[in-house]
Write a structure and sequence with these properties.
The complex is a heterotetramer, with two copies of chain A (338 residues) and two copies of chain B (309 residues). Chain A has one domain: Alpha-Beta Complex (2-enoyl-CoA Hydratase, Chain A, domain 1), CATH 3.90.226. In chain A, 32% of the residues lie in helices and 17% in strands. Chain A has eleven helices and 14 strands. In chain A, strands 3, 6, 8, 9, 10, 11, 12, 13 and 14 form a nine-stranded mixed β-sheet that branches. A two-stranded antiparallel sheet of chain A has the order 1-2. In chain A, helix 4 packs parallel to helix 5. The N and C termini of chain A lie far apart (41 Å). Chain B is α/β, with parallel strands linked by helices and 309 residues long. In chain B, 44% of the residues lie in helices and 17% in strands. Chain B has 13 helices and nine strands. In chain B, helix 2 packs across helix 10, helix 5 packs parallel to helix 7 and helix 9 crosses helix 10. The chains are: A alpha/beta (338), B alpha/beta (309). Strand 9 of chain B pairs antiparallel with strand 7 of chain C. The structure holds zinc ion (ZN) (2 copies). The site of one zinc ion has 8 residues of chain A, from loops.
Chain lengths: 338, 309, 338, 309
C-alpha cells in the first residue's frame, strides 16, 4: 500500500483476496443464539442461514463485518482493502485499563484488526466499494483507523467511479483516541464529498446501533439511506438524554421505525431483503456497463406481483399510529420485496 | 417516439379549437367538463405514471428535518436507460388513501423532501421530472408554523438553480403556489385535460364572488386549461390524452406521457447547464403582459396573447 | 425607458424625480385615524409625524408606498423608477365587476398606477434600490406589473451593485390576472438571485399583511428579514385554514412576533426604528464608498448605551411565553435602538 | 498587529512548557485548573467577543424551518473594514440567561440557523468566523427527533464546501460533535485556556470509569488543552489570554483575539477559494495517527506526535 501525496492509491496486487471464510472472523456471531425478544433458540447454522434474523419474531441479531460482506456479495466473494491498518495510541490512554490492552483484547476476541472492513465487492452484479462497521470490535467505535479506512473507501470509489456502500454499526467516536477521534467525523464528512464530485452515489445502511459521532457525521449523509428494523439511530443515546433532561422517553425512541416517521431515513429494510434492495437501487442509479443486465431483471422485479410491489413500496411499511395518519387500505398485499 | 402523434403544437391547435372560445353557454360546459376531468377520481395519479414509465422506481422518504410527507412522492427511477429523479404530489383514490395523502396537499416537509432529492439528483447529474397534481399546498396551522411559504419559495429557488435538465408536467390539477413550487423547469408540459391556475375554482368563487357556488363562473373567468396555458406561454406543450380522457386508459396515457418526456429530455440533454439556466430564467422572465406607455406595449409573453386592456 | 433584449436598462434621464410629495398619493393614509386597538383618535398630521404608529399603544397603521419612501429616505428624496407601467387584462377578466373597472377605481382612489413603487433612494447615506408595495392598491396584489417592477428592481440593483430593499404588503397573487399572476412568483424568485450573483444584499421588510403568493415567493428570501409588529405573515390566511381544517387558531397565529419564534424572520422592528435598523445593517454589509462615514457613527450607535443596546439586541424582544423558554434577566434595559 | 505578541508558535512553546508534561500530581492540578478556566463563569462568551471586536453587529434569528435557538448566535458584523459573518454557541451568565441559552447546548435549529447565515455569507463573499463554546449539542428528545445528528453533519459538510475564508476559534469549552459542528475551517485557533475534546470530562468519567466523580482523571487521560491540540494538529495556533485567564480582562482578551483573527483572515484572503478548499480538506484528512505495516508508520498528523503504540 503506498500513499502518494496526501491522497491514497491502492496497489491492487497487494490486496489480499479473502473470499468466503467460514471460521476466522465473526466468532461471536456464529454462536448459537437465544432470541432476546421471543426466547426462541437457534443453532449457529440456523442463524447464519436466516442472515441472523429470528425466523419467529424478526428480531435482528448483530452480524460481523465479514459475514455482512458474505450476505451482500456474489458467490465470487470480495476483496478486502487496507486490512492491515491498526490503531496507534496517540494519547497513551488509560481508563480502567490501558487502550493498548483493549485493542489487543478486541483483536483476539474478533480476529479482526479494527472496527471496520473495507472491500471491493459486487452486489447484484454491480461493482462497489463497501465499508462495513463491526460492533463486536470495541463497540464499532470510530478512531483514526476507521476514519482513515472510510476516507480511503470514499476516495477509492470516487477514483474508480463506482458506488460506495457504507454500513454503520457504532456507538460513536472512540473515546480512547480523544480529540483525534472526534476529528474523524470531519475527515469522513469531507471525504464523502469526493463521491458527489465524481457523481457516484453512496448507499448508507444504518444497523443497530448508529449513534454519537457516527450518526452525526458520515452516517447521516447517504444519497439513499436504509435502516435495519429496530436499529437505534441517535446522536445522544436514551440513557444520556434521560439523565440530562429527566425526560421520559417513548419505548421506540430513536428506533429505525420512528426515525422513518421523523424523516431521517428513506426506508426500514429487513435484512433478508437488504441485498436485493441495494441491488435494485444500484441498478437504477449506477447499473453495470452495457445495460444488458436489464434484459434479465432480478428476481424481485419479475412476475405479476411486480407492479403491486412497486405501488406498495411507495407506502412506508410502518404502523399507521406512528405516522399519525391513517394507512391506506392496500396494506394487505404489500408485494414481495418490501 | 413512434409516429407523429406526440406533436405538441399541431395537437394544440386541435385542443384550442375545442376549448379556446370565450363566450356562450355550451363552451362553459366544455371548459367545466375539462376542468372536472383534471380531477376525475379515476384519473392516473403521480405514482400511476411513474410506475408505468420507469423500468424501476425507488421511492425515498423524509426531509431529514422533521418528517415524511405522504402528499409528496420523490425518488429515483430508471427511464429510457438513464436514472431520473421524479417528484410529484400524490393524491389518493379511496377515502383512507386520500386522507393518508392529505388530498395531494403537501406540507413543508413535502417540499423539503423534494428539494433534498433534487439536490442529490443535481450532484449525481440526473435529470429531474416533476409531476404536478394538487389543489394547493396544505392550508394548516402546522404547515404555516413550519414555514410553508418559505418551503415553496425555496423549492422554486432551488429548481431555478439546478444544473441538470428539469421538466415539469401538470398531470391533473395544478392550483396555486403549491403547484408552482414544483414548476420551475426548462419545459412545462400539460396534459390535455389538466389545469394550471392561481387558485381552485371553488377558492376563487368564495373569495371573488363571496359565494361558494360560483365555481363554474370562476372557472370560466380563469379558463386555466392546458390550451390557454399554452397560449399564455405558461405551458410549452400540451400532451394529448387517450380519447375520453386519461382516466379511460392509464396505460396509453402513461405511454404518451413517456414519449413526450423522452423527447423533451433528449432536447434538453443536448444543451449545456449554462444554456439551460439562461433559457430557464428567460422563460419565466417574460411571462405576464402589461402596458408600458414609454416602451410601447410590453406584451411580455404569449404565443397568441390578447391585446392590451 | 427602453428594453434591450430581455433585460431591462433604464435611461436615467427619463426618470421622473418625484421628491417629497405631500398630497398626490396616499390619500387614504393621510386621513385622520382612530386606532382600532385603543380607540385613540389622531389627526392626519399626528399620524404622519409618528410614522402612522399609534403613540398610545404602538399599533401600526397602513402606510402608502410613497410615504414609506419618505420615511426611509434622506431629505433629498428619491427617484421613482418605471412608474408608468400599468396592468393589462390578459384574461379579459370579470368577477362581480370587470378587472379593468377595478384597476380604474384603484388608480383614482390611490393616485397610483400599480401596487408597487420602485425607486432609487439613499437610506442613511447608502444608495439603494427600493421596491415598496402598497396595500391600498387592490390589496397590494401581485400581477404582471408588480412582478415586472420587482424583477427590474432586482436587475437594476444587481447592475448598479447596490443593495435592494423590498417592503411587502400584499394579500398575494392578483386573482384577476389568473395563471399569469401565479407566474410572477417564479419570476420574482428567479430575479432575486441576480443579487446573489452580484454579491449584493437584499433587505426584506414584511409589513401587514404578507400572505399568499407573496410570502411564498420573494418575500421569504431576504438576506436579512425584518417584520413590523403585528404583521400577518402566512401562506394561507387564518380564515382559509379554519374553514379547511376546522382548526381553532391562536389569536396571534401568523403574526410577526409568533413567526419570529417560528424562526421565520430575523427581528420584529418597530416602524419608528426601521430606517435606523436598515441603515445599520447596510453600513455593516454594504457601506458607502470610502468608509469615511464610519468615522461619524449614526446616532443610534453613539453614546454609552451602545454596548448595552447591542447586547440586548441579541435577545429577541418577544415575551418569554412565546419562546417556551425563560427570558434572561436583562429585559429591563433593552437599549435605545431595539 | 502591534508588536510581536500574537505569535502563535512561539507562544505555544511557552504554553507547552506549562501544560505539556504528562505525569505527576502537580501537573494534574495545572491541567485541571486550565480546564476549569475554560468554563469559568466569568469567562467571556461569544457575544462578549463579537461585541468588542466588531464596530457593529447585527444578529439574525431563526432557521426558517422550525424555530430560533438562543443557544446559537449568528449574524453579520463589521470587522476591520469588512463584513464578516459570526456564528457561535452562546452561554448565559446568570441562571435565567443560562436556561434561556440552554447552557450553550444547541438544538438542530441552532445549527440550521448557522448554516443559513453561512450560506448568505458565502453568496455575498463574506468571510466566516465561528466561536466555539459548548459542553456539547443538546441531548434532548426533541433535538433527536428533529435530526440533531444530521444537523451537525450537514453543518460540517456545508463548512467544508464554503468558498469564502472560514476561521474557527475555540474560546472556552469545545466538547463533542456539538463543537465540531462549527469547526470545519481553514484555520482552527484555540484560546490558551480553552479545551477541545471528544467528550466532557464528566461525560467520560461516567462512561469510561462508570463513576461520575472521576472527571479529573478523565481530564488527565484526554488532556484536551490548547497546547496539546496544537501538537496533535487539531489547532493551528494558540491565542494567549491575559495573565490569569481571559475572565480577568475581557477587553484585553478580545483585543488579542481580534488581532489573531485579522492576521488569519488577511492570510486566507490572499488565497483563492480553490486553494483554500484543497488545503481545508487536507488539513482534516491528515488528522489521526495509526499504524500501517505495509506503508511503514502512517503517522498522519501531528507536529510533535507521540510514537506509534
Ligand atoms: Zn425472536
Ligand atoms: Zn392605539
Amino acid at each position: 500500500m503506498s500513499r502518494v501525496g496526501r491522497n491514497i492509491t491502492v496497489s491492487i496486487d497487494r490486496l489480499r483476496h479473502l473470499g468466503h471464510r467460514q471460521d476466522r472472523p465473526g466468532r461471536i456471531a456464529s454462536d448459537a443464539s437465544t432470541c432476546p425478544k421471543c426466547d426462541s433458540h437457534y443453532s449457529g447454522d440456523e442463524m447464519r442461514r436466516n442472515l441472523r434474523v429470528c425466523p419467529a419474531c424478526g428480531h435482528h441479531f448483530p452480524v460481523t463485518a465479514h459475514e455482512r460482506l458474505e450476505q451482500l456479495g456474489e458467490p465470487g466473494g470480495y476483496v478486502e482493502l487496507w486490512s492491515d491498518l491498526r490503531a496507534a495510541d496517540p494519547l497513551q490512554f488509560t481508563d480502567i485499563k490501558p487502550y493498548v490492552d483493549r485493542i489487543r483484547e478486541a483483536e483476539s476476541k474478533t480476529g479482526m484488526n479494527e472496527a471496520i472492513v473495507c472491500a471491493e465487492i459486487e452486489v447484484r452484479h454491480v461493482p462497489c466499494v463497501a465499508a462495513i462497521m463491526d460492533f463486536t470490535f470495541m463497540g464499532g467505535s470510530m478512531g483514526a483507523v476507521v476514519g482513515e479506512k472510510l476516507a480511503r473507501a470514499c476516495e477509492h470509489a470516487a477514483q474508480k467511479g463506482i458506488p460506495l456502500i457504507i454500513l454503520s454499526s457504532s456507538g460513536g467516536a472512540r473515546m480512547q483516541e480523544g480529540t483525534l477521534a472526534l476529528m474523524q467525523m470531519a475527515k469522513t464528512v469531507i471525504a464523502l464529498d469526493a463521491l458527489a464530485e465524481a457523481q457516484v452515489p453512496v448507499i448508507m445502511i444504518l444497523a443497530h446501533p448508529t449513534t454519537g459521532g457516527v450518526w452525526a457525521s458520515f452516517a447521516s449523509l447517504g444519497d439513499v439511506t436504509y435502516a435495519e428494523p429496530g436499529a437505534l439511530i441517535a446522536f445522544s443515546g436514551p440513557r444520556v438524554i434521560e439523565e440530562t433532561t429527566r425526560e421520559v422517553l417513548p419505548a421506540d425512541f430513536g428506533r429505525a421505525e420512528r426515525q422513518l416517521a421523523n424523516g431521517q431515513v428513506d426506508a426500514v429494510v429487513d435484512r433478508r431483503e437488504l441485498a436485493a434492495r441495494i441491488g435494485r437501487v444500484l441498478h437504477i442509479l449506477a447499473p453495470p456497463d452495457g445495460e444488458a443486465l436489464l434484459a434479465t431483471p432480478p428476481g424481485w422485479a419479475q412476475g405479476g406481483a411486480e407492479r403491486v410491489g412497486r405501488v406498495a413500496q411507495s407506502l412506508p411499511s410502518i404502523p399507521g399510529k406512528i405516522m399519525g395518519r391513517i394507512r391506506p387500505g392496500s396494506g394487505d398485499d404489500e408485494g414481495p420485496a418490501e | 417516439m413512434s409516429g407523429g402523434k406526440p406533436d405538441g403544437p399541431s395537437f394544440v391547435r386541435r385542443v384550442t379549437g375545442k376549448l379556446g372560445r370565450s363566450s356562450g353557454a355550451q363552451v362553459d360546459e366544455d371548459l367545466w367538463a375539462s376542468i372536472q376531468l383534471a380531477r376525475h377520481a379515476e384519473r392516473p395519479y403521480t405514482l400511476d405514471y411513474i410506475n408505468r414509465i420507469t423500468s424501476d422506481f425507488e421511492e425515498l422518504h423524509g426531509d431529514r428535518l422533521f418528517g415524511d410527507d405522504p402528499a409528496m412522492v420523490a425518488g429515483f427511477g430508471r427511464f429510457h436507460d438513464r436514472a431520473v429523479a421524479f417528484v410529484g404530489q400524490q393524491k389518493g383514490r379511496d377515502t383512507n388513501e386520500r386522507t393518508y395523502r392529505n388530498f395531494g396537499m403537501a406540507s413543508p416537509e413535502g417540499y423539503r423532501k423534494s428539494m433534498r432529492v433534487m439536490e442529490i439528483a443535481n450532484r449525481l447529474g440526473m435529470p429531474i421530472v416533476t409531476l404536478i397534481d394538487t389543489p394547493g399546498a396544505f392550508p394548516g396551522a402546522s404547515a404555516e408554523e413550519r414555514g410553508q411559504g418559505g418551503a415553496i419559495s425555496r423549492s422554486m429557488q432551488l429548481m431555478w438553480r439546478l444544473d441538470v435538465p428539469v421538466v415539469a408536467v401538470v398531470i391533473g390539477e395544478g392550483s396555486s403556489g403549491g403547484a408552482l413550487g414544483l414548476g420551475i423547469a426548462d419545459r412545462v408540459l400539460m396534459l390535455e385535460n389538466s389545469t394550471y391556475s392561481v387558485i381552485s375554482p371553488e377558492g376563487a368563487s368564495a373569495i371573488l364572488w363571496r359565494d361558494a357556488s360560483q365555481a363554474k363562473r370562476a372557472a370560466q373567468a380563469f379558463k386555466p386549461t392546458a390550451a390557454n396555458c399554452y397560449r399564455w406561454g405558461v405551458a410549452d406543450a400540451v400532451i394529448p390524452e387517450p380519447p375520453g380522457g386519461a382516466h379511460t386508459d392509464h396505460e396509453q396515457a402513461a405511454e404518451i406521457l413517456g414519449q413526450y418526456l423522452q423527447r423533451t429530455l433528449l432536447e434538453l440533454e443536448a444543451q449545456t447547464p449554462a444554456e439551460r439556466r439562461v433559457a430557464r430564467r428567460d422563460r419565466f422572465r417574460r411571462l405576464g403582459p402589461l402596458r408600458d406607455p414609454e416602451g410601447g406595449v410590453a406584451m411580455a409573453s404569449g404565443r397568441d396573447a390578447p391585446p392590451p386592456g
